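Please review the protein record below. Tell me whether the encoded fold seems credible here:
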Amino acid sequence: MKYSVALSSQLHSELVNHLLRDDGQEDLCFAVWYPSRGRDRTTALLHQLILPLNGERRVHGNASFLPAYFERALGIAIAAGGGLAFMHSHYSPGWQGMSRDDIVAEEGHAAATNGATGLPLVGLTLGTDGAWSARFWDKVRPRQYERQWCETVRVVGDRLSLTYYDQLIPKPAFRAELTRTVSAWGQDAQSHLARLRIGIIGTGSVGNLVAESLARMGITNVRLFDFDAVELVNLDRLLHATRRDALLQRPKVEVLARALKRSATASPFTVDALEWSINEEEGFRAALDCDVLFSCVDRPWPRFALNVIAFAHLIPVVDGGIYINAKPEGRGMRHADWQAHVVSPGRRCLECLKQYDPSDVGTERDGRLDDPVYIAGLPTDHRLRRNENVFGFSMSVASLEILQFLSMVIAPSGMANHGAQRYRFVTGTLEHDFRACEDTCLFPGITARGDTAGIVVTGRHFAAEEARKTRQKLHRSWRYRLLKLRTIISQYLEVHRQVQV
């Protein structure tokens, strides 16, 4: 199991103000954290700061706390149903190691914390440059606890900042293929970008273009989510897909993963192709291993899940969408709009952005959006029946999503948030929306609650199950095997021809 810690930029600012003192002395405090359990990684989400009261800690160059402070903090964590995190400052920059006194202080309180809360003690150290280091104290034997270093600590808000533990996630070596990219924003920014774990939800026209851009920019770890297969109707806008892929009904993630391995400029490069919906438990947990998620879907249920992830699990979601209003019977286009935005605490959520209607979430959960009879009964201009798209429009949406992502991570000239951007195709104008969520929105209230948010976003996904079952049945048929053999022979002959040329 891998480990990480995440906190909102607002909580980070409060901690910096408390821990980095003007007099140059170290300080300390506690906080409540909640778990976010992914498939391969557990993240501690810092939720509630517990500052010391008068007489609860001593500052003497270093800092120490009295038993009353620990007992009070532990009682708050128990009442909140969360774990306990202990934080202190060091007066040097970057990822911090631990002194012998640091180890004794944390290890000595690990047993009481685990016994009272059922969760490990999490320790964090803040450097002078705002960089965090973190570790979990896991129980390995009766009355024995060991330190497990976190790979990353991420601060999420207008800007996404990560501190990496280089021994677990080393800085990627410079490669000649990335000379022009690195020259644009420098090696430090490239080192930050390259090590992000990025998930792409939906590998249709926009998802393919986003993934291709990330692979070309030197991202080292990409995870793809889609249960659908390539179809002939996809070929007018699905990068990398061929007619052969459609005839063989290859999974979209398989086709895209194969192409990304050719396009990637990073080495090593890892791509995971997952034939799951994010609304299935397997897909949802795998998404929680990521540092950033790209939303390249147009259905309400997955967008609802992504909204929860952005706030409750502190994983920024870069989302986009296209709306085309065409005249009946192919008589032309009235207008077309597309937009892109980042969803995270402090920004507007997908529901407030009207990227999905919450009343449609239950409809999709019940499988009715995949029922031709139900869809046929909707008005011809209903939003759930609109499926027009153009490759050029998808390119523009993907570009806006990538630009939103780069601004959030690199923050050129200190500008990390460009608001939600909407492009009006007919008038050629770009609009910006910097509004926060509505006062009645529930999502800011679940910020950093992780697995305890109390909102169920997963369940049986009948369309995903049927898609996988259909492919399995097809792949066992003799017709498929014959077509696959012909494909392999054709590919071999093509390679042989090129070698001769």
